[in-house]
Amino acid sequence: EGYPFNPCLTEAQYKEMESKVSTTLSGLEGELKGKFYPLTGMDKAVQQQLIDDHFLFKEGDRFLQAANACRFWPSGRGIYHNDNKTFLVWCNEEDHLRIISMQMGGDLGQVYKRLVTAVNDIEKRVPFSHHDRLGFLTFCPTNLGTTIRASVHIKVPKLAKDMPKLEAVADKYNLQVRGTRGEHSEAEGGIYDISNKRRMGLTEYD
C-alpha cells in the first residue's frame, strides 16, 4: 500500500521498498524466521542454483518487459527464505511482495496454515492494497481477488503426450497448466505445474 505498480516505480522507490521489506521480515519468528538476500551483488552461481531449485525468480519475460515492469533490474529486488526453504517472500518481482509457502509431499493443510500465519503477521507490519469490490490488488489483473495461486508439481507422462486432452481436463476444473519454471515455460520430464485458474469472486476456502 502506498506505492504504484512496477511500471511506475522509480529506482529510489524500488530500493526503499526492498529496505522496508527486509526490515519487516527480519521480525518474523519461529518456523518463519530466516534471512533476506538482495539480488544486487548476489553470486551468479548461488542465484542460478536458487532458480534451478524453484526458489528464486528470473528477470521478467518478454511480456513483463513489454509492460515496462523490469526497469532498474536487479535494483530493489530480493528474496527472503526460512532455514528449511518452506517459506519464501519475493520482493519486487512482478508484484511488490509474493508470499510463498511450499514443501515436498501432499500435506496441503500444512502449506496453507504456514501461508496464513505468515500473511497475517506481515500484514500487521505492512498493509496490503485492497479494493472493496476487486479484493487484494495486484499488477496482473488475473491475480486480483484472493491473489492465491495453489499449485502442485505433478508428473503426468501419458497426459503430457496429449496436450489437448490435458488442457481440456484442466479447463473442465478451472485449472491452469504451466511448465515447472513458471508461466510461459515448458514441462520437464512430463512434470507440470497445475494450479487454480480463478482468484476473483471466490473466498480463500473456495
TrEMBL record:
The protein's Enzyme Commission number: 2.7.3.3
Keywords: ATP-binding, Kinase, Nucleotide-binding, Transferase
Gene Ontology molecular function: arginine kinase activity; ATP binding; creatine kinase activity
Ligand binding (ATP): 54, 98, 149-153, 178-183
Keyword Kinase in annotation: yes
An example Gene Ontology biological process: phosphocreatine biosynthetic process
SUPFAM superfamilies: Glutamine synthetase/guanido kinase (SSF55931)
Gene3D superfamilies: Glutamine synthetase/guanido kinase, catalytic domain
One cellular-component annotation, GO: extracellular space
PANTHER family membership: ARGININE KINASE 1-RELATED, ARGININE OR CREATINE KINASE
Name of the featured protein: arginine kinase
Organism: Ochlerotatus intrudens
UniProt lineage: Eukaryota, Metazoa, Ecdysozoa, Arthropoda, Hexapoda
